Amino acid sequence: MFLRSRRPGALASFLLLTAGRPAFAEVEAEASPASVAARIASCLEADPRLLAGKEEIHQAEAEEVTASLVPNPELQVASGLVPFPWSPFDDADHPGGPPQLEAIVSMPLDWLVFGKRAAARESAGIGVDVAKAGFDDLRRQRLLAALEAHYDLAEAAGVRELADEAHREAERLYSITAARVGAGGAEAVELDRVRVSIAERRRELALARAAETGARARYEAIVGRGCEEPGSLEGPAPEPVSEHAALELAEKSRPDLVGLRLHVDQSGAELRKERADAFPELSVEAGYTRQFQRKAMGAPDAHSWGVGLTVGLPIFDRNQGGLAKARSVRRQAEHELEASRREARAEVTEAVRNYEASFEIATTHDEEALRAATRAKERIEEAYALGGRSLLEVLDAQESWREARRNHLSSRAELWRSLSRLQAAVGVQVLP
Predict the structure, then answer these.
(1) Are residues 350 and 389 in the same domain?
(2) pLDDT confidence of residue 15
(3) Which residues does 295 contact at the CB level (< 8 Å), separation at least 6?
(4) Is the same domain home to 299 and 246?
């Protein structure tokens, strides 16, 4: 039941106070978290850090091309048994030679016979998959950073809007109080109290604008300008996922774990490559020789050819160091995989628990507190406009309402941030 006005202009003062106040239920529908993440991910395609990380894939592919190439043959051209200019060959007094020209082509065969090229190609091929997994993990981390910056900006924008609304309400309260003082329903000191409130609201608005500018700068530093603008923090959030399901998703989907498993496979391939490299170098040769016998021996020049086989003798160097290092690298990769699994399990567990808490706070406690603070504020303002409440009660109700709004904004932003962290922890953007 409305209170009956006890002085002229009270109802008009109430209408002035409540004019332009947005209803709590009137919130802008927010797009789903998956669609927001998809639009931000499309902006990240031009992220310099991601573009730099993508070059790692191109470099690994180049190494695979190098490992698949067949070794080049070698050509050796030599001239031998040539006399010094001041000491020519002579049939009677200074026989020698005959001078000859040799051209020898050698072709390595150890890459084929001992499987060195195949082992190198296997290792390089897995290296491409490792690079792709590393790029996926970089993209996961950059997307998480962009989403957190996105919701930081949304929270900062909401706080700025709240500060702007609080400033307008303080000015409306000043007009009402001035009207009451003029009508003799309030003392003049109340105007000074409202002026203090207006100054505080201006200070909060200036700080909120600066915070929003800083949050926007951090967001645009990641995604660039012209990307997804933050909207309302309201909207339904997915139900919390069980810890067991989240751990299973992380084990299968997290690109860093996938990359480490591939790194273990690559270290095994590297060990096989080092074993192949322990075999000696092997090459086959074929050559042509022309002997210049006419001046040296008085006989016609002669043409001949020959073949040969060159093989190293692995007496001292049998690639002992390379094999020992490859075994150590494999053990290291296995230990790193197990350590990352433990860290990932802890990260997933923490993310699941944080999201459960954020979900409960944002969807239950803070919404109830905001509704209660909004009802209390409206009723006290209505009663104040009609002369039934004091200014201190109005200011206290407004402060409680602002605190409830700030808590609500913070909890909603933390809800989406914790969801983004959970999605990043399990390695998927859509939770079951």
Answers:
(1) yes
(2) 33
(3) 88, 89, 97, 98
(4) no
CA distance 409 to 419: 15
User: Number of structural domains, the chain?
Assistant: 2
In the β-sheet with 282-291, what is the strand arrangement from edge to edge?
Answer: 74-80, 100-108, 282-291, 302-311
Residue 287's domain spans which residues? 70-108+280-313
CA–CA separation, 208 and 211 (whole Å):
5
Identity of the highest mean pLDDT range in 89-93, 292-296, 423-427: 423-427
**Please, what is the average pLDDT of the chain?**
85
pLDDT tens for 337-350 read 999 999 999 999 99
Is 259:137 a contact under the CB 8 Å cutoff? yes
pLDDT confidence of residue 18 = 38
- 267 and 368, same domain (yes or no): yes
* 91 in a structural domain: yes
> Can you tell me the distance from the alpha carbon of 54 to that of 344, in angstroms, rounded to the nearest whole number?
24
pLDDT given at position 227: 82
CATH number at residue 336: 1.20.1600.10
My answer on whether 156 and 210 are in the same domain is yes
236 pLDDT above the threshold of 90: no
**pLDDT tier for residue 229 given thresholds of 50, 70 and 90:** confident
